């Protein structure tokens, strides 16, 4: 099966409005209500016998967008976990179920719950031979290693250098931040700073880094704090 169906950046037809306008807090919050309604419809389609991959791809995209939208509001860990657990049961395709499970690992890491994260990881297929699914699992493993301050394990997962391990493009930027952070914490300052400079090469890239390091699912990891400070705060979150 082509892994393209699992690309989280691929916008299903009719959902272009989810990406309209800049990803500001106000825009994300305004999308929460319509996305809840879209998720209700997607969930109903998944519950019908014979839901195909197109239905599942659409539902997964809506689920991710809804989680991002409620992140900027007052969502609770219980609400997010309930959404994900419901979704995991609805996806008939093992690949989409694995993507949801990887997101549950991220949620557990964000709550500093290494035990729960490890338990969810244990439910994932170790190798799927689908690049997007294997990359999502690598990102989940790296997050748990970051939480445990196991920097060597982070690099074993994401590679010591860009390109050491093949990853799907949608995940490459966040995995690069994980690598920068691990190198810095291991004292590989020159290597960390060199890769970070590449990640800050344009204003668009700097905006992405600002959003990534301040995202709720990454905030407790304090990603790349020292390298960003050495870079002159180019990607610090504005106050």
Write the layout of secondary structure elements.
Blueprint: H1 25-47, H2 53-71, H3 77-90, H4 94-110, H5 114-121, H6 131-147, H7 151-158, H8 172-185, H9 189-199, H10 203-214, H11 216-219, H12 225-230
Helix pairs in contact: 1-2, 3-4, 4-5, 4-6, 5-6, 6-7, 6-8, 7-8, 8-9
DSSP summary: helix tally = 12
Number of strands: 0
Unreliable sequence segments: 235-239
Alpha carbon gyration radius: 18 Å
Query: What coarse outline follows from CA principal-axis ratios?
Result: globular
The chain-level structural class is mainly alpha
The run of helices and strands is HHHHHHHHHHHH
Distance between the termini: 45 Å
The average pLDDT is: 92
Strand content: under 5%
- The percent of residues in helical segments reads 55-70%
Main beta-sheet annotation: none
Explain this structure:
It is a single chain. The chain is an all-alpha fold. 64% of the residues lie in helices and 0% in strands. The protein contains twelve helices and no strands. Helix 1 runs antiparallel to helix 2, helix 4 runs parallel beside helix 6 and helix 6 runs antiparallel to helix 7 (151-158). The model is unreliable at 235-239 (pLDDT under 50).
Give a concise summary.
The protein is mainly α.
Fill in the keyword field for this structure.
239 residues; mainly alpha; 64% helix; globular; disordered C terminus
């Amino acid at each position: 099966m082509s892994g393209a169906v699992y690309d989280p950046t691929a916008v299903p037809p009719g959902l272009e409005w989810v990406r309209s306008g800049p990803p500001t807090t106000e825009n994300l919050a305004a999308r929460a209500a319509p996305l809840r309604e879209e998720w209700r419809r997607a969930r109903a389609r998944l519950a019908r016998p014979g839901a195909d991959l197109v239905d599942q791809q659409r539902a997964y995209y809506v689920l991710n967008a809804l989680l991002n939208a409620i992140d900027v509001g007052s969502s609770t860990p219980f609400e997010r976990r309930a959404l994900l657990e419901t979704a995991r049961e609805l996806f008939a395709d093992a690949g989409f179920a694995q993507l949801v499970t990887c997101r549950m690992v991220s949620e557990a890491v964000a709550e500093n719950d290494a035990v729960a994260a490890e338990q969810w990881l244990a439910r994932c297929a170790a190798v799927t031979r689908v690049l997007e699914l294997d990359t999502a699992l690598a990102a989940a493993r790296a997050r748990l290693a970051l939480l445990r301050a196991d920097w060597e394990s982070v690099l074993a997962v994401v590679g010591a250098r860009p390109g050491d391990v093949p990853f799907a493009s949608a995940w490459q930027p966040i995995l690069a931040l994980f690598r920068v952070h691990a190198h810095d914490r291991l004292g590989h300052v020159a290597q960390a700073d060199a890769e970070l400079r590449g990640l800050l090469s344009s204003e668009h890239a700097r905006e992405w880094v600002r959003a990534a390091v301040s995202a709720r699912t990454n905030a407790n990891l304090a990603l790349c704090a020292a390298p960003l400070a050495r870079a002159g705060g180019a990607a610090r979150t504005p106050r």
